[in-house]
Amino acid sequence: MTPFTFARAGDTAEALRQGERAGTKYLGGGTNLVDLMREQIEAPTALVDVTGLSSGIEETGGGGLLIGAATRNTAVAEHRLIRTRYPLLARAILAGASGQIRNMATVAGNMLQRTRCAYFYDEAARCNKRAPGVGCDAIDGFNRMHAILGASPACVATHPSDMCVALAAIGATVHLQGAGGARTLPFTDLHRLPEGRPDIETLLEPGELITGVELPALPFAVRSTYRKVRDRSSYAFALVSVAAAVDLAEDGTVREARLALGGVAHKPWRAFRAEAALIGAQPSENAFRAAAEAALEGAAPLADNAFKIELAKRTITAVLAELTGVSA
Amino acid sequence: MSDNKLADAKAAVQGAVQGVMMKAIAVAPDSWIPGGVPDPLIVHQHGHVGRSLSRIDGPLKVRGAAPFAAEFPMDGMVYAAVLFSTIARGRIATIDAQAAEAAEGVALVMTYKNAPRMKPMPGFGSNAKAAGGASLPVMQDPEIHWNGQPIAVVLAETQEQADHATSLIDVTYEVAPSVTSFAEAKGVGVEPGLFMGSPLKIEIGDAEAALAAAPHRIDAVYETPYHTHNPIELHAATVAWQGDTLRIHDASQAVAHMAWSMGHMFGIGEDQVHVTSPFVGGGFGSKTLWQHQVLAAAAAKLVGRPVRIMLSREGVYRVVGGRSLTEQRVAIGAGADGVFAAIVHTGISATTRSNAFPEPFILPTMSVYGAGSFKLEVDIAYVDMLANTFMRAPGEAVGTFALECAIDELAHQIGMDPIEIRHRNEPDKDPVKGLPHSQLDIAKAYAQGAEAFGWNKRKAVPGSRREGEWLIGMGVATGTYPYHRMPGGAARMTLTRDGHATIEIAAHEMGMGTATAHTQVTADRLGLGLDQVTFRYGDSLMPGVVLAGGSQQTASIGASIIAAHALLVTELLQLAGNDSPLAGLKPDEVGGRDGGLCKLDEPERFESYASILSRAQRNEISVLGEAAKPLELQHWSMHSHGAMFCEVKVSTVTGETRVSRFLGSFDCGRILNPKTAMSQFRGGIIMGLGLALTEETLLDTRSGRIMNPSLSDYHVPVHMDVPEIDVIWTDIPDPHTPMGARGIGEIGITGVGAAVANAVFNATGKRIRSLPITLDKLL
User: Fold this and answer.
1) Which of A188, B33, B161, B406 could be bridged to B628 by S-S, CB 3.0 to 4.6 A?
2) Mind listing the UniProt keywords for this protein, alphabetically (chain B) (predicted)?
3) Helix, strand, or coil (residue B368)
């Protein structure tokens, strides 16, 4: 770990002032950033602890919620209104880490965690995310965990978060504060695809701070879930995960659906095409399989991860069937 | 000497040793050696042995008061951090440590340029006390032998300063060609493998011909991957030079070997190296001599201060060897009656030129079944990688996977119950050595296990049981591990006038309950209460060369205590003299009871230890017993067995496998302490579940670099992967071992991989022959 200075921000304005200096990183729970510092992958010269800022969960008008950026993952997953209105979010967080880590990790920190690609973590390997332009050792290396959607020749890493998959499905909005003032971004736009610059992972401006995430009213999310498929029962990142919510009309057809995938792309992957394919469909295994096919359209496997395509399709189908009571 | 010549020389030495042992057979009596009768403790059924005693070090451990190797403070101590190579073969062209040396808190940077001169590490087998995982020089030259080799050590006032300074060292390499893929290594050529000096090759009859002629045949290839050791306690040592003496607080399963080996490398006597290791947080074959202890001692010598080294988890993956991969062909030919006409078990394992240690996967096949013919062979292919080593049940853990899956396949083909086919091939004597079994009741273990597990509920047709999206199946497999007892056991037994006995032996407590079990054994032998016995261990200054490996430590300690006890009783009878109720009795006519000696068949003839010592005006007597040579192994085929039952659920959606039930039914001789034994068995089974379903070291075949050096990316089972595990045992003593016991440290992992794979087949109809059984293989 490279030596660094540490300061605790008393308010957002102070955090932004400190965050402007080059080499500064905001520190949430530290469950990922500190690991990366230990591994010499991140070497900030200054840390600004922002865990003292905005950690409440408030109701917005019309049934939505505003979650402060520094809210601990545990607090979100345990919150009564989250559990009743957005069960997919509570389940995603609970699938995401051990209790100890959830107690430390913050919502914004979870969003900004970095890929667990082994080549990103190993300084002996080439990684365009660590050192832009040097090449990628994952593309022809161990890539079982890697992306099947939206990857580029520069980077095939995946975003590791579970929580973010649920936020993508919910259609959350991110609240930001920077030198230029406050702004919001659709959550699904926060993270970038790698293209030629996998080192740039989000649309955050330098020094910009996430202050909160807003969940829109989504009444039908009471019928929602999150299913994570991984190599062991706990303490493993998703091979594929599915967050979904389904709204059925009185005639039993799908009025609206939300579907997002984890473990498949450089960002939490909202499956807009599949959602569109579901609208008006009579719930059935065939209809869900067709939606799953749409979700995986254009998927491009690497040497070790072709199975993810079929796995994702099956998991989507099973999750939608479960939510709508269709027997598989 | 070239590496090959070294291996040849090693083989010659070991061959000679075995020759001597063979000659000794003729003169040895046909039973457990001193006395020529079974250990009397076997028939002693109402003492401490066999009772569930909680481990005596438990309170210390739960209070955090049991000191481990990295917890011994020393005045002026500095902390070590290690920098690892990033290439597999070649040499260091330049290494610039100036920035590191100038960094805050740094006391020393050691590289090959300034490291003290040392002899190469003595690899296992090169000497009876050699403890090295490989036979390479340690930081003596710029040569790189594997990706991850230590190339610099930084000492600093804090661990953080040392860690940081390693990142400031600039290294450039001259890269040399390397062979880092198994496929490429096989292409270069394979050689016959040696294990403990003997070729891993056996041919009895013409197995290929018998196979070809058999009405039923299975012929398949099974693969197991590299595995890394992951004991919870990281490999660590706290080291100081005290004058000419090297003091090492180590995490060790071989303190005497360690003292000799370090002395050898530094050119001092083994008595000038003092190694202690009171507690070890798991060994499994890994807590031996690797580079970190050597580097700490060398750096301590240079800096003139004590050094603490604790490898990071990544460091363990880079420096401490694990289990090598295997590619095994198992072919079995049988008649319609299921009787084996031929067993072929051959294949290849990867190893390095610096240790030449093939994973000896044919070991189980050499003893478990009878067959009309055998062809068994392990070849080796050389990979430029970290030297592989012993890992819980080397050979048996992965060998039983291939063998026991093949038997399941054959049973399915014939349409016979998998337990029945095993019964039909139970050997009446050792199939390779021809020796009688010392004790073999696997049939009973199967019967008890099948009853307890509900084996009769298994459906013979795969894929015929389903609950929701989950297919459910049951599988069974035989586990096996041999009884070993290595030469060199010795113990000091000291009895004081207050009737307290102390045992001292250079043995080890790695969490198995060694001290607890041998306190029970000693108390029974002497007729003392548990609080009247102190078992001291884990110190190279104590008697004995006792490896806590090969599941042999219990036997080695047991035989050492028997020897010491015999001397003690002889001396006590002499001291008792003619005025004692014991007058005129011979040592084998007396035993311990109620704090004294009595005539075995006339217990009222008794005198207490206190009385004997008082009359003789002695405060204590102390004897040093040397264990008899392990000749029982030349007379008997000595093997433990387990009937391993597994139930799995496999998701038809995702291919995920969940082990829902597991039962191990063991035939392992007498169980000394059911409570600690239960932990040993369960721990082995859990490790076997990892082997079956999740564990795999990812060695990048381009670079030779391990790419998952962390508990996050190398998947050992988590709690949720482990169901309730039932363990039962026959508890039938082996009349030819100390206490009637056979070691149980390793058998738990054997057979588990196959039991899981066979259950997966029963659930799904899919036969997975490559471990780990990850979900993609079942989609």
Assistant:
1) B33
2) Molybdenum, Oxidoreductase
3) coil
Q: Do B642 and B751 fall into the same domain?
A: yes
Interchain contact, A234 vs B779, CB within 8 Å: no
How many domains does the structure of chain B reveal? 2
Interface contact B104-A314, CB threshold 8 A: no
CB-based contact B474:B645 (threshold 8 Å): yes
Domain boundary among B607, B629, B651: B629
* Separation in Å, CA of A6 to nearest CA in chain B: 16
The reply to whether B527 and B472 lie within a common domain is no
SS (H, E, C) B10-48: HHHHHHHHHHHHHHHHCCCCCCCCCCCCCCHHHCCCCCC
CA separation for the pair B3, A234 (Å, rounded): 44
User: Which residue numbers of B have CB closer than 8 Å to A's CBs?
Assistant: 86, 104, 147, 160, 163-164, 167, 469, 653-656, 658, 693-694, 698, 700, 702-703, 705, 707-708, 712-713, 715, 717-721, 774-776, 779
Looking at the domain assignment, is residue B29 inside a domain? no
Answer whether A118 sits within 8 Å of B708, measured CB to CB: yes
Contact A125 B703 (CB under 8 A): yes
pTM of the predicted protein model: 0.96
Does the residue B267 lie in any domain?
A: no
Helices (H), B110-230: 159-166, 182-188, 207-213
**Helix segments in B388-488, DSSP class H:** 396-414, 418-424, 442-453
Chain CA centroid to CA A204, Å = 15
Nearest to B383 by CA among B769, B714, B702: B702
CATH of the domain at B609: 3.30.365.10
B746 is catalytic: yes
Q: What share of chain A is helix, strand, coil (3-state, %, to 5)?
A: 30, 20, 45
Residues B617 and B518 in one domain: yes
pLDDT tens sequence across B442-486: 999 999 999 999 999 999 999 999 999 999 999 999 999 999 999
Please, what is the average pLDDT of chain A?
A: 97
- Report yes or no: B691 and B752 within 8 Å, Cβ to Cβ: yes
* Facing residue for B721 by CB, picked from A229, A233, A307: A233
Chain A residue at shortest CA distance from B720: A233
Domain residues for the domain of B49 are: 40-65+485-629
Count CA atoms within 13 Å of residue A94 on its CB side. 14
Do B697 and B572 share a structural domain?
Answer: no
Number of Cβ within a 10 Å radius of residue B22: 10
Q: Name, in order, each residue with C-beta under 8 angstroms of B464's C-beta and a sequence gap of 6 or more.
A: none
Best residue of A37, A122, A305 to probe chain B, by most B CBs closer than 10 Å: A122
> Using a CB-CB distance cutoff of 8 angstroms, which residues of chain B are in contact with residue A142?
698, 700, 707-708
How far off is chain A from B707, nearest CA to CA, in Å? 6
Which residues of B fall within a CB distance of 8 Å from A137?
700, 702-703
Distance from CA of B172 to the nearest CA of A (A): 12
Element (H, E) at B470: strand B470-482
Q: Which domains does chain A have, with CATH numbers?
A: 5-51 (3.30.43.10), 225-324 (3.30.390.50)
Partners of residue A125 in chain B, C-beta under 8 Å: 703, 705, 707
Strands, E assignment, B43-139: 78-84, 90-96, 106-110
Q: Same domain, yes or no, for B476 and B500? A: no
Is B214:B341 a contact under the CB 8 Å cutoff?
A: yes
ipTM of the complex: 0.97
Q: Do B560 and B539 fall into the same domain?
A: yes
pLDDT in tens, A180-237: 999 999 999 999 999 999 999 999 999 999 999 999 999 999 999 999 999 999 999 9
- Is residue B753 domain-shared with residue B637, that is, in the same domain? yes
pLDDT in tens, B636-692: 999 999 999 999 999 999 999 999 999 999 999 999 999 999 999 999 999 999 999
